[in-house]
Amino acid sequence: MRFSGTETYVATPDLTAAVNAAVVLERPLLVKGEPGTGKTVLAEEIAKGLNAPLIVWNIKSTTKAQQGLYEYDAVSRLRDSQLGDPRVSDIGNYIRRGKLWEAFTAPERPVLLIDEIDKADIEFPNDLLTELDRMEFHVYETGETVKAVRRPIVIITSNNEKELPDAFLRRCFFHYIKFPDSETLQRIVDVHYPGIKHRLVEEALRTFLAMREVPGLKKKPSTSELLDWLKLLVSEDIAPETLREQDGRKLIPPLHGALLKNEQDVSLFEKLAFMMRREQRGG
Fold it and tell me: AAA+ ATPase domain spans which residues (predicted)?
């Protein structure tokens, strides 16, 4: 069982090596990288490439580790007992299985995505240490122990909003997805838009990479935003020559709302355009 990328996902050699190392070691793969570099999509493509079911646990700021195991709905049981519902005799009717329970008992070895773990409380990773290490947990209400039939392939993503505990990191195989170079970006574009004009892609990539190098950007445009921008350029039939124009009026590219996602960065480019126009007029 080895991952080598898919037809719709360009995986670099270091990324495929990291995935396969985590599979062999049977440890969670902790993936970090800039937003928009394909961390979440990676789990989907691993599942597709290995022909495995995918189970997704999206983490929010309010998510508790216990929710990944199970939740006991005591309120519903109390209400049903007051109504004389015969189901109250079996407490198991009020146990809601979480994503880890689902992954542990899946008939086939699944890929379990724990997405954006850094959004949760700082204690969240520590609360999962034993369960992810031993691949089992105890259900106190029923007295049963849920143990993984097969160790799931666990992919954990983080955007570095919070530091993760050392004890948690020791149990993971780590990989940082670097921002793609121009050659890899070209391959990614070819996968998503195989019929797109070469000159348009060439000019778009040149503009895109130049924008990422502008000092002071609050949020650099990402790979996913590049793909959105290219889709719009094709839809609006923007000519490559339009992107090549570099006078002050054209410093901000057309349809830049797909690339610049806050007013500070738009303002930065407007100031740069103003300075360029003033230089062109000779000060």
Answer: 25-183
Strands 173-177 and 153-158: unpaired
Token pair, residue 102, equals 């689902």
Give me the amino acid identity at 76: S
- Is residue 204 within 8 Å of residue 229, measured between CB atoms? yes
Q: For residue range 31-41, what is the model confidence (pLDDT) as tens digits?
A: 999 888 889 99
User: Which of 244, 235, 236, 237 has the alpha carbon at shortest distance from 204?
Assistant: 244
Q: Residue for token digits 């799931």?
A: 152
Would the pTM of this model clear 0.90, i.e. be above it?
A: no
Query: Both tokens of residue 177?
Result: 């997805």
For every residue of 117-182, DSSP letters joined together read: GGGS-TTHHHHTHHHHHHSEEEETTTTEEEE-SS--EEEEEE-SSSPPPHHHHTTSEEEEEPPP-H
Q: Which residues pair with 29 in a beta bridge?
A: 155, 173
Q: What is the pLDDT of residues 98-152, one digit of tens each?
A: 999 999 999 999 999 999 999 999 899 999 998 999 999 999 999 999 999 899 9
84 Cβ neighbours under 8 A, 6+ residues apart:
none
